[in-house]
Structure formats: structure tokens, C-alpha cells
Amino acid sequence: MITTLHIKNIGIIEDITIDLNEGLNVLTGETGAGKTLIIDSLQIISGGRFSKEMIRKGESQSFVELCLYEPENEKAIDGNIIVSREISLHGKNMCKINGRMVTVNELKEFMSQFIEIHGQNDNQNLLENKMHLNYLDGFVGEEILAKKQKYAELYDKYCEIKQELKNNFGDEKERQRKLDLLQYQIKEIEEANLKTKEEEELEEKRKIILNAEKITENLKEADTLISENGIDSISMAIRALEKIEQMDSKYEKASSELKNIYYELQELARDVNSYKSDMDFDEEERNFIEERLDLICALKRKYGNTIVEILKYRETMKEEVEHIENLEEYNEKLRKEQNEIEEQMKLLANQMHEIREKKASKLQGKINQELEELEMKYAKINVKVTYLENEYLKTGKDKVTFYIITNKGEEEKELSKIASGGEMARTMLAIKKVLADTDKMPVLVFDEIDTGISGKAANAVANKLKKIANSHQVMCISHLPNIAAMADYNYFISKEIEENRTKTQIKLLQENEVIEEIARISSGEINEISLRYANELRNKKAS
After folding, report:
1. In a domain, 62, yes or no
2. Is 312 among the domain residues?
């Protein structure tokens, strides 16, 4: 249950703390005083959506915090769980559970175990067909629980095998498609006959071809200068030194070194001369280089950034081909196991279907009885259990849908097609009343569930809320004196202006104040007649 709710800077709420109790907690008060903002705050702390426009004007952030008393929960510290959410104008969103930061999704998942909020326009669980099966199974209770758990285990294993077969190309067509693709890729790479350093060599040749004219011209000039000027000049210098080399050993050394330079220069001249002959390229060779580089570029786009990577990819593909070709025996074992699990699932699904069909008629009978007591005499719920022949779901092979006739002479339609908010609220309340003993949700919040009802229907709704509160903590915003009179705890929401700013206040009423508040909302003013009526309503609650 919620023991404390603290709200700060949400709309006109500046800073309030509400201490809640077991049983039926009813909030009443002035229009526009902030009652709905309290429900909005509960939705925010439950991981719901938040708009920055909800932050109180002039403030930079809002804050919601509550304390849950759940002594059996593993997260509880001394029986308490502190949950908070802080949101700033800049979009910063900080959620915490017992001081540990969590994501909004983690907060939403955690709080879904404790609080269920129902409002005039927020009966999403009731409208969603996927929840109808949960309602039915909740009504069935222990009889189906073990079968559901066993089926869920088998279903998870079934899905694992199905996924593994898909990954292992257990489907023959898929396997053949994959093999064809791999073999095509391997063939494409092998036919290219790539060499490790080939791209660099081709790029070098291409560069030379593109600059052939410039290279030839400069090689010719270098050859001429070396042959006609360099070699002849050095030859003449050698002859000059030879004439004096006998006079001093240093002249002899200089002559010897110059001769070595002469021989090296002659060799270099031959190399330069040969480079000129290497510059003879025909158009066919040039086209070959361009086409080869284009091919390498295309393969790189598909299989790797370098030739080494492409060749490595080819080897990987060969290993995968071998792996796929040898998978059939293993896949056959998986398919056999899958078929065995499917048989067990089908057996359990059939058993659950029989139980659900049997209990569906009892559930709809009880809901229809509650609807009659809620002054919906002609409303009839029909709980349909449809068996899905060719489909396995996480919960079996059943699709459960709630259909309803709200008025005499109308056609049956899905529950989600109900147009009246009052009808939706009472239908949801009837279901909650029937499921109260099996529903494990600790806290139920009802926002203006009394909209569109009065008279006997109002008394019936008040009685249902009181009965639900015997096994749940119930928090309800109401404008009806009938519901306020049935409360275990009454809270009055008001607003005041302080320093030209409106802010919300909340007060837990004493018994004499409860009588006055019931009188106020019954007639709009507190007088002898309204007070007498309030006392009568309160006495009914006591009896």
C-alpha cells in the first residue's frame, strides 16, 4: 500500500504531502483545486508520460515521491520502498527506487506491480483485448496456474529451438538460398585471382602511365646530361689526376675514388637509358590496368577494405558453407525435439482451453450480476474464448475477448466500443469487484468513477468500492456524497492564493468535517437539511 505521497511543483500544486491509509480513501474538493493533478502525479511516479507544461510556472523542476509499504517485496527496506521521479524543464528525468537510479521503463515495469489507475479516459487495460485473458485467468486462479507455468516454459524452449533452426537454416529453401549466395561470393572472389600486393603495383603502373610523357622527357634530359656532360667531365678529371698520383698518396686516393664514381655513373646511365624503354605502353595495357583496379574496387565495396580482407572473407565463407552442409543432422534432432515440445504444448493448451471455456460462462454471469446491481439492468457481458488452430501464443492457443450489450435491443460489440464514460467506468468496476479476491494489485486508483451516474447507481458504485477496499487500498476522487460517505478516510482538496499565486492544499478530515463535506457536495451548501442527509448517508456506511 501507499503510505505517503509527496508532490512538488506540479501545476498549481506547490508542495503537498498526503498520508494515505488502508481501505477506501476518498478525495473531494473544489473544482480546479488540483484533485486530478494528484492522479496525474501518481501516473508520473508510475512511469507515465510527462509534459514540461505540467511544471509549476516559475519553477525549473517538478518532483513526485511515494513510500510503499510492501514488507514481502525483496526491494523493501524495513518493509518500505521509496520511489521518486524528478523532471526538469531541460528534459532531465531522474527516477529512483530506494535511492538507486533506474530508467523510466524500469520504473514503469516496477510500479505496474503495485498501482493500477482507472480514469474516465484511462481504462486502457479494460480496452485492450490482451488483458481480457488475464482477467479470465485471474478469475480461474490456481486451477490453471500450474498448467500456464508449464506451458510458458515449453513455449520459451519452443521459441528458442525455432530461432536456432532459423539461424541454422533449418528451412530447406532458406538454407539453399544462403548456400547459393555464399557459393556465388566465393566464385566471384576466386575468379578475380587476386594477389596480395597487386593493387599497390597496379596503382604504381597507372600513375606512371598517366605521367608517361613527363617522365620520358625528364629521363631523356637526365640521360643526356649524364652521358654528354657528367661521364666525359669525370673521365677528363681522372686523366688529370693520373698524371700526379705518383707524387703523393692522397692524389692516388682521389684518383681511385673518382674512378669508382665514374663506373657507378656509367651503370646509372645505363639504368636511366633502360627506364626510357620501359615507358612504351600500349592502349590495351592501359585498359587492362583500369579494368583490374575497377574490379578490385568493386570487390572491396562488397567484401572488405583491402585485398587481404577480401581473401580472408573468402575463407570465412568457405567455412560457413562447410558448416551449413554439415548442419542437417543436427537440425533434424532439433526438429524432432520441437515436434515433441509442440505435442506437449498442444495438450496443455487444450486443457487450458477447456478450463477457460468452462470458467468464462461463470465469470460473465458474475459480472452481469454486478452490472445489474450497478443499475445497468440490460447490460450483458459475453466472455468469448476463441481457439487458435494454427497459432501458439505465450499463454496457450486462446484469444479471449469481452463483448457487451449495454442497452436492450442493441447489437453485441467489443468492450472497447463502449461510447459512454459512465458505462465504461461501471463495467470496469464490476469486473474489478468480481476479481477482487484474486487480483493481486495492492493499490487501485479511481479518478471520477462517478461521472454520469446518480441515484441508485451512485449507491451501488459506493458499495462496490467499499467491498473492493476490503482487499485493496483504494484511492478515489469523487463528487458524489454517496461515495464520500462510504470512505474510511476523507481528504479535502482546496486552493488558496498566497502572494498572488494559487496553490493546492489537502487536509485529512475529522468526522464532523466529513459530515460537513458530504453536506456541501450533496446540495452545494451546508444547512440543516443537507447535514441531516449527510448523517443518514454516514450512518448507512456504519451499518
Report:
1. yes
2. yes
